[in-house]
Fold these 3 entries.
Entry 1:
Amino acid sequence: MLELAWGWLTFCMLSSSLEALQPAIQQLEEWKIDAPHCDNFCQSLLEKLIEKDAFNPVILRALQPLMQSDTQKKLCWKQLIGCLRKLKKSGGQNLVRKALDIQELVSLAANARGCPVENARRTLESEC
């Protein structure tokens, strides 16, 4: 189980919730017009899961809708950078390295950035 600010969630509940979020994540770019900080939820959720050792790469499927256009890929990249910055702020460079050890996260970043995985890893580390 995973302890978050709003209580206890099982991974199954969280996983199905993230899959339910996919349609919302597709509209994230539009929502940012009216609510510029609405993407903080996604960044914070990823950050807390990594920080609490509760991260499962299946969760990254929720970001797959952001891989359909160049604009959406930029937004996906920003979500990953935002997550890493939150990790750095809450736990320092050790948490950032922990996140960068998650191959699926770095692979998603590479796809979003359109570059090799090692370039994405270096860029993620330097930008956070």
Entry 2:
Amino acid sequence: MPTGPAYLIAFLVGPLEQTLGALAFSLPCFLVLWLTSGESLTIPLSPRGLWSVLYLALFGSLLGFLCYFLILSRLPAATVALVTLITPVLALTLGMTLNREQPSASMLIGAALILVALGAYLFGDRLARLKAEAAALRTPE
């Protein structure tokens, strides 16, 4: 069994608190880097851009993390990890549907490969089991 301060902290603090602590620690670091980089402190933001940032902050981060941790508490980690693989395909589909984006052929091929691989992972075991059962039924005893 692992020991040490990092393991103890991870054991005593839940995943949501760990994420909140990491974000609370990293935000001041980003601010210091921004101030020392010499970049302008003003950000030209259109109303559409402002709504986009608010949407990402609320749904993409806050609600997304809450749902992710809720699902993680109820499903195996290996299954939940597959969500990160389907996210680019979903983003590509939303961009095509809502923003009339035209993806390249290689992007569509990549999305199809991701879907095929996820399908093979999710249903491959069932297919192998069905084939084994069918072979067992055909074989006389």
Entry 3:
Amino acid sequence: MTNQEYGQFCGLARAAEIVGQRWTLLILRDLSVGPRRYSDLVGGLPGIPTNTLASRLKELEEAGLVMRAAPAGGDRSVVYGLTPRGRSSVRRSTRSRAGAPAACARRARARSSPRHPSSPH
């Protein structure tokens, strides 16, 4: 899927070009809960093609909304998180929907937390 370009030079048009792509807002929502490994994002976004996730993360990183970091030590997995600009963008985009950020964060936490064998599915 190619990016929609509006050919306008205002910040709102540029923001729409970035976050208006399919899956992008859901990726930002999941990262708003806290940093995530790639595999955590795949697990928390059922149905997202891995090539789409990889390209969206790269686009968000290039836009300065997401950062990737390799933790020190023996763990070689890459962790993705929101930059201060990314956190600000998520807050602004959800501010008008009272209660929505908390509800979305709860759903994202529930999806990313491991299930206990005794807990119901």
